[in-house]
Amino acid sequence: MLREEVIATRLATQRLTGPPASDPAQVVRELLAVQAQDAPLARAMVALRCAGTAADVAAAVARGEIVRTHVLRPTWHYVATDDLRRLLRLTSPKVEAGMASRHRLLQLEGTRLDAAIEVVASRLAGRRFAGRTELAGVLAAAGALATDDPQYWAQVTHVLLVAELRGVLCSAPVADAEHHYALADEVLPAEEEFDRDATLVDLVGRFVASHGPVALPDLVRWAKVTLTEARRALDVVGERVDRVRVDSEELWFAPSALRPATRPQRAWLLSTFDEAFLSYRRVGWTRSAGNPDGPDERRFAQSAGGPVLCDGLDVGGWKRRWDRGRAWIDLTLDPGLAAGARDAVDEAVDRLLLVITGPPSSVGGSTYAGA
C-alpha cells in the first residue's frame, strides 16, 4: 500500500469521502472520541461526516446523546454518552498521574483539590447546570480559591478539568453556546461493572477500525495506553485486524471496517484537531513543496482553522472569521496550485461554510492571502 492509498483509505473509512453516517452520535461512537477543544469546528468536522450541520451536532449534545468533556488525554473530546464512563476508568488514572507537577504549580495538591471539586459538585447537584464563570464565583465564595491569586483562573480551569477526568463532571445537555457543566451521575447512564481488559481491547479495536491504517505509536499518543497494552489487545482482537508496512512503518487496520469512497472529493478543509489530520504523526499528510507553512509545526496549537488538503497533500492553511454576522474563510495556499486544484479548494470552502452556518444567507465566502 502506498502513502496515497493510506490517506485515501482513512478519508473513506472516517466517512469524509465514504458513506455518511446517519447522525452525529454515530460519527462520535465510531471514532470513539473526537478532539473538541475548538468546539465550533469540532461540531463542523462531525457534521461533515454525517451530511449535517454544526447545529445538528449541538442538538445531539442538548439531547444528551454525546457529551463534551476531558477524557483520554488532558484535552476536550466529544464522546458518546454510553462510552464515557469506561474510557475514563481506563485512561484517567494515567492522565492524572502525569499532571502531578501541574497540581504542585497551581498549589492544588491533595485535599485542597478534592475540596474544590466537592464545592463544584455541591453547586451542580439537582441538575442545576452552570458555566465556568459561575462556578469560579462559587469556588471563590466558598473559600476554595482566592480571586486575588494570580493563578486563580488557571486554578478554576484545572479544578474543572480534573473533576471531568475523575468522572464527577461532564457537559450538560443544554442548547446553549456557552459550555455548561453537569454532575456526571445525573446525566450519564448508570455505571456498569468495569472490566479493564475488555475495555482496553474494545478501545484498541475500535481505534484501529475507525482510524486505520494507523501506527500503534499514534494510538499511544491518542490515549493513555502503553505499546505493550496495545499489542496485547491486538493479539486478542486477532484476525479482525491486519497490518501493512508503509514508509518503513507498521500500520494496522480492520478489513471489515473499510468503506468505499462514495463521495470522492479532491479537497478538504479540516480542523487542526480533526481525527483525520492530527491523529497521524506516522505516515501522515505530506506538505506540498510550496506550502506557505513550510515545516512550521505551530498550527498544531491553532484554533478556528487548520490545513487545506488537496489531492493527498497538505497545500496550505485556512482560518474562519466572522464579519457582520457572516462567516468567511481566509486561505493561505501553495502558489503553485493548478487552477483545477484551486477550484476544488473553493468547493471545499463552500461545503464547510454551509456546515458551519446552515442557511446560505449567512455564508460569506473565501479570500486568498499569500498565494
What is the residue-averaged pLDDT?
Answer: 93
Poorly predicted spans = none
Count of beta strands: 14
State the secondary-structure class. Answer: alpha+beta
Please report which band the strand proportion falls in: under 5%, 5-15%, 15-25%, 25-35%, 35-45% or over 45%.
Answer: 15-25%
Distance between the termini: 33 Å
Major sheet summary line? 6 strands, mixed
The radius of gyration computed from the alpha-carbon positions, rounded to a whole number of angstroms, is: 21 Å
Number of helices: 14
Helices and strands, in N-to-C order? HHEHHEEHHHEHHEEHHHHEEEEEEEHE
Kindly give the count of domains: 3
- Overall, the morphology is globular
Classify the helix fraction into a percent range.
Answer: 40-55%
Structure description:
- By secondary structure, this protein is an alpha+beta fold.
- The chain has three domains: 15-187, no CATH class; 196-257, Winged helix-like DNA-binding domain superfamily/Winged helix DNA-binding domain (Arc Repressor Mutant, subunit A, Orthogonal Bundle), CATH 1.10.10; 267-368.
- Helix content is 41%, strand content 18%.
- The chain has helices at 3-13, 24-31, 39-48, 54-62, 84-97, 100-105, 111-124, 132-141, 152-165, 184-187, 196-211, 216-222, 227-237, 339-357; strands at 34-35, 66-70, 76-80, 130-131, 169-171, 180-183, 242-246, 249-253, 267-269, 286-287, 305-310, 313-323, 326-333, 363-368.
- Strands 9, 10, 11, 12, 13 and 14 form a six-stranded mixed β-sheet that branches.
- Helix 3 (39-48) crosses helix 4 (54-62).
- The relative contact order is 0.13.
